[in-house]
């Protein structure tokens, strides 16, 4: 099975253009240092039945935005995977969840000084329990939407979270 790893254990990222067409691959480390290497990622927004959104506090060992609050599930699309396959894999790896219905929300481009991601966003509903991966996640909790919105822009959350909220609002999911 291809785990998206290059020789030596480095994760391989799928490089894309603005229309999400594959233009190549590059090691994760290169993609996280060069905003010119736009790469394909997925996020899964997890809501509970009360309409609260599940956020994860990223591990302090992460190379990008360590210790910041972010979407519950996120990761790179591996070579040969489509967005939904990657979303399901990340749900399983990060939260221990399988078989949930996923709804495609859309794509968003997230640009920072260190990287550029073209993110495919899905949404699902689940109240828990969860089995968070301690290598990836420091903390996991549901937030009220208003609480998330007031946190956007401060150092506690990732830069992409505001873009994701805007996408969810435009699509009627927020």
Automatic annotation (TrEMBL):
Residues 37-168 form the Nudix hydrolase domain. Transmembrane segments: none annotated. Pfam families: NUDIX (PF00293). InterPro entries: NUDIX_hydrolase-like_dom_sf, NUDIX_hydrolase_CS, NUDIX_hydrolase_dom. GO terms for molecular function: hydrolase activity. It comes from the Bacteria. Keywords: Hydrolase. This is NUDIX hydrolase.
């Amino acid at each position: 099975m291809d785990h998206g790893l290059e020789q030596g254990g480095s994760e391989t990222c799928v490089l894309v253009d603005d229309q999400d067409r594959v233009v190549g691959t590059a090691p994760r480390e290169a993609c996280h240092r060069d905003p010119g290497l736009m790469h394909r990622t997925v996020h899964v927004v997890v809501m509970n039945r009360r309409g609260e959104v599940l956020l994860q506090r990223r591990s302090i060992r992460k190379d990008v935005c360590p210790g910041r609050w972010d979407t519950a599930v996120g990761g790179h699309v591996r070579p040969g995977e489509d967005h939904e396959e990657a979303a399901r894999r990340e749900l399983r790896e990060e939260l221990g969840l399988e078989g949930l219905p996923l709804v495609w929300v859309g794509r968003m481009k997230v640009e920072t000084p260190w990287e550029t991601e073209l993110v495919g966003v899905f949404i699902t509903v689940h109240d828990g329990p969860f089995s968070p991966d301690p290598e990836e996640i420091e903390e996991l909790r549901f937030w009220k939407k208003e609480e998330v919105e007031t946190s956007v822009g401060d150092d506690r959350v990732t830069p992409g979270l505001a873009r994701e909220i805007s996408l969810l609002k435009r699509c009627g999911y927020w």
